[in-house]
Every structure is written in structure tokens, then in C-alpha cells.
Design goal:
This protein is of the alpha/beta class. The protein contains nine helices and eleven strands. The strands form two sheets. Strands 3, 4, 5, 6, 7, 8, 9, 10 and 11 form a nine-stranded mixed β-sheet that branches. Strands 1-2 form a two-stranded antiparallel sheet. The chain is rod-shaped and about 100 Å long.
Amino acid sequence: MVDWEDIRHFLAVAQSKSLAGAARALDVDRATVGRRLAALEATLDVRLVDRPSRSCRLTPVGAQVYKWAVDMEANAHGIADVVKAARTPIIGRVTLSAPPILAAHVFAAHMPRFRSEHPHIEISLSAHDAQSQPRKSETDLAVRLVPPDERDGTARTIGTMTFGLYAHRDYAHLDVPERWQFIAFDQRYADLPLQRWLLGVAGDRPVVSELNRISEHLIAARAGIGIAGLPCFIADRDRDLVRIYDDVPSFARDLCLVKRRDLRKTQAVRAVMDFIADVVAGNPDLAPGSPLSQYDDRLEQPARRAVG
């Protein structure tokens, strides 16, 4: 069995090209280096180093062994790094911005698990919709439904949020599509893709209520006010709601995880990024590439409808 200490001394000789140089590099005496080198050659039953005078030169076999020894040293350092990382807690504070519906219904529910895995990392989670995005200096990471500007930072798609039309199961006009009334956003959200899709579906039918948070649309639909465009991952599990499939094109938005461009990717930031991506990947209703994730833009309508 090859002794690692013999390998370490051999590496020093090969790199310094002399026994004396190796001894200085390892802070040992020259005799110890010579003894370790001789022990390795005896174990392998081959000469690794020629010693014509003061300098040392690798033999052809020695050169091959040297390449393997370098890899062994790198692996040894890798093992040490893994052990050190396991013993050293990751510490930091990471600010995360997300749409209110995701912050409340997805990420907040998984915070206890993250806290148990990373007790020394603090996540500051804030809810921001499309019209109230925080300044870049206020957040380290952001989950967005709107593709970010390149100046905002680096981004990657981690999932897809699919929307559908929903109403209370006892909605008075559920079986009479021409009498449907809709729940939409107000004028400030006229350019929001979800708003354009919803108004395109509504067509000439009236908007009965304007609310500016998806969570408010959910409450209004539960109350039986009208038809709402809601995330399927929430509405499909609501016993009071039914989904309307009456020839309605699907709508979906990519979930983008954005990292501030000037933010150094520390271990804490990496841990939070992995956590967010893992939570989304673990929710089958948010997984990218699902059957309903293809956005049909035929019904987009840029103009806002009046409240009826």
C-alpha cells in the first residue's frame, strides 16, 4: 500500500527538482526527504527519480507517476475543503422579492425547512407585484413573472405559472357564458399580459370589479362576484371554485429568478437560490414545460374595458 506521506515528499522533489529544495518546502531535513522517496520507490519497485548530482530528474515512469500524484493531491485538498465546509456554518442575510401570490402561498410555507437546513442564514422575504418592484439596491434576489431588463441582473427560468378562468361553483351565470362578468385589474395594469389576456377573453362582456392583487381576485371569485383569471396551482385546489374550460385559450408566465448583477455569489446567496429553484421544481403545477404552459396570445387586448 502506497503511503500518502511518501507521495507528498515525491511531489515536493519533482516540483523543486532537488532533495534540498523539497526539504525546505516541507520544512523537514534532507535525510527525511531521501528516506521517503526511497520508501516510495521500494513500494512501487521502480526508480522514479534520477539523482546525477545536486539536481533531481524524473524518470519516464516517474513523470507518469507524478501526473497521478498531482491528481491525488488535488483530491486530498478537495476532501479537506468538503470537511471544512461541513463544519463551518453558512452565515448571511439575503433579501428576496417575489410576487405576493408566490411569497404567501409557496415560499413562506417552506421557510421552516430552509431554516432547519441553514439556521445561520436569514431570508428577508418581501412581496412585490409588477407595478411595485423594489429598487435594485433593495433586494439581492427576485422571482418575477415579467422578464427582467438585462441591467437588472442575471436571470434564469425556474418554472412556469399557468392561469385559468375560475368562478364559484354556485356562480349565478356559470352555465350562461354570455352573461359572465369578470374580475380584472385597473388602468395602471393595462399593459400587464395577464390583464390583456383576461380582457381578451371577456370581449364585450362587462368587468364587474377591479382589484389589483391576484389574492384579491381569488377572494372575489370565492365570494361569487364573477369570473377571475387565477393561478392554477391555487385555484385547482380550492373546493369553492370550478375551472371554466369553455374554449378558453390557456395563459402562462415563466418564473424568472433574478440575481442582482453586482452581487457576489456568496454561499448564502447560492443556498437561497438553490432553495427557491428546489421549491418551484418540487411543485408539479409550477414545473416548466407542463401541458398548459404554452401561452396563446390570440385574445390579448391592449385597451382597458370599462367597469360594467
